[in-house]
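can u pls check wat happens w/ S-adenosylmethionine
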Amino acid sequence: MNDQRHDTTDMPTSIGAPQVPLHRRGIKSYVLRAGRMTAAQTRGLEEVWPRLGLTLDDGRQDLDAVFGRQAPRVVEVGFGMGASLIEQAERHPETDFIGIEVHAPGVGKLLDEADKRGLSNLRVYREDALRVLDECLPEASIDTLQLFFPDPWPKKKHHKRRILQPAFVELVRTRLKHGGTLHMATDWENYAEHMAEVMSAAPGFRNVASADTAPYVPRPEFRPLTKFEARGERLGHGVWDLIFERCV
Ligand SMILES: C[S@@+](CC[C@H](N)C(=O)[O-])C[C@H]1O[C@@H](n2cnc3c(N)ncnc32)[C@H](O)[C@@H]1O
């Protein structure tokens, strides 16, 4: 076991005010719901996991060794049932994808689908994404981090549970390569405004939006439609995409 959890020798050099990420403050950005597993999801977790699953106990990863090649790398945080991730991994065999999700049925579903479609460019963590970023992903190792429709925590007293916060953003910055991007999407206007505010104040990031649409970018065609987005559309919600590039 390669446990570097408490090894601070290679902690990221942070810029700006020091921030403590949610997980180190004992706050969770999710609620684990007891959900019934389908046979396919159980098969994914039991039979496919040994091949495509990664754990915190694996410690800091050498991603070239994990995938057996050098390739562009995309990480999706909170992939839900995995629709977007599966579609992208299938469409882009030249890119490696890492999904991180705590919800067991979603992880099982993703694994089952990945196996059925014969995908070898996908790996999965069933863990708190903050710990995975902190403890497992090397610095400057990711080309894109995707955060699609994160839990909005709409009540003001719950805003502290929103995953998109200065400390998370700083952690993401250190894991992105220079020129790598953080791509967010939400159907909650208040969360979109919160994202824009946090990202605009975040050191080391540049908004890629052009002046006529800033702080948002038009919905990129490459982002697959997910269940949450489709639901938002049905409810008449808007959808806001934000893309920021690591520049320091
Ligand atoms: C509102 S859902 C959106 C799912 C998916 N991205 C979509 O668009 O359909 C948010 C997901 O993020 C997951 N999540 C929230 N915080 C997380 C964390 N810290 N680590 C891993 N997953 C997390 C939740 O379990 C949930 O499945």
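The radius of gyration is 17 Å.
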